[in-house]
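Summary for the lay section of the report: proteins are chains of building blocks that fold into shapes. Here we show the chain for glucan 1,4-alpha-glucosidase and then a coded description of the shape we predicted for it.
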Amino acid sequence: MRSFRLLSFTIFIFQFNFINSLFIPFQYPPQSLFSYGSSSNTASIPNSFEDWLIYQEDVCLRSILNNIGGDFTTDKDLLPGVIIASPSKENPNYYYQWTRDAAITLNLITEQVYLNPKNHSLINIIESYIENTLILQKIPNRSGSVEDYGNLGEPKFETNLTNYNGNWGRPQRDGPALRAISIMNYLNVLYEYSLPVEKQSTLYNSSFIYYEAIKPDLIYTIKYWHEKGFDLWEEIYDYHFFTSLVQLKSLSLGLKYAKLFNDSIEFQNELSETINNLLNFINHDSGFINPFKPYIVSGPSLYHIGKRNGLDIATILASLYTHEDNETSIPFNIDNGYILTTLSSLISDMKFRYPINFQDNFLGVALGRYPEDIYDGYHQTEGNPWFISTSTASELIYKLIKDLKTNKKDIIINNSNIDFFKIFLPLDNSNNSNDENDNDDNDDNDDNDQFEELIIKYNSKSYLLMIDKMFNYADGFLKVVHKHIGSNGELSEQFNKINGYMQGASELTWSYGAVHQAIIARKRLL
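The coded shape description reads as follows.
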């Protein structure tokens, strides 16, 4: 998952059809069935893409639940609510609970509860996770003390809810923000359905959860948002676009809950002031927006010394994780030109970087984390495509289509997003002007510097053609995933850039979550 595991510590200075069946005992495939023997492991999974999507959605959710302590896991050593990154305990060892990974996973479980609020086994997982959070937040560790809230930046813990004391890339300042978001999302489910907290003997009520579990993470972000930390890949000590955007989301959501639970005016003012300061930092002072680049520079420090070009799939993840509820006050939504150009730039780089993309005849391509990646899942050699990255491209495009269609938006193409939309644009003018609803002034120009604006009217022939192309293109990334997964739908961290064999940590929770969310985004279009 993170190449820092194999780097010297000194580098840091640089650097629901399924819901109703959840109570059926889950017979998880034994580890011996986790196939690395073929780049196209289709012995058991459906060959049909459409059939596979149905199959894989089920496998992903079952596999996620198998990596969480609770009613569905076969790992009886896992405490309730503990979410492991992977069952792999050696080469590499991912058998820990990462603050980030666990919070991202909890959001997915909360979505399932929102669809079925009577699923008490899933509710038990979520509330056990919150109970565990209350324990972990009160443990001093190598990231800091309890008194100054610095301990909340600790990136990972042992599965018995004790500290991991080895050298690591710490602190990681996105963790508290993501954890607060995930718990606030659960409180929203309780609020929407007028449900009480089930573990009332320990968690009491929603107000208790806000003040005891959520507020400390909000305080941490208020205190430390302006300080550097390690990125989500645990490699680089810097300011990071991903971290800053999830921090902004956490504080913005936190302000709503501070008002809901009648927190002090002083604390509400602190939240408001920090939101404004952080927003200004992201838009102006951070270096994420560079006048010489059409995309987000994910980590400015290494860009400025020529170590990286700034492209990172983390930018796309940040946009998705902060706009799942159609939030408009957070910048860099999925239709933002910088976000779309970041994705198209990653695609342009990696379709040639990974030889496997010359072998596969898909519209989509296999994507990795960032162009300069050298972590192969075990050692520092050469980076590979990741299931997280490849499926995330699908999810973003599906959600963009959903936004356009649901809100009946015209497709507006300009200098800020032309690099993305030219993937789909028919350059033959006859394809753009065959409809009376189309904009008459729609000459396409390959020279982006001279491109002004093209408006494709909602529901016109050209609009429908564009949407269809975008949908098929998004499918192409999931078709890459389909080809390279295990014979029973298993997902590792990476797949080899040359032969397509899976490698790195097996049964990666985050991989399952990313593919699951891409499939769900697709379903919501149909």
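Put simply, here is one thing we learned. The first strand starts at residue 97 and ends at 98.
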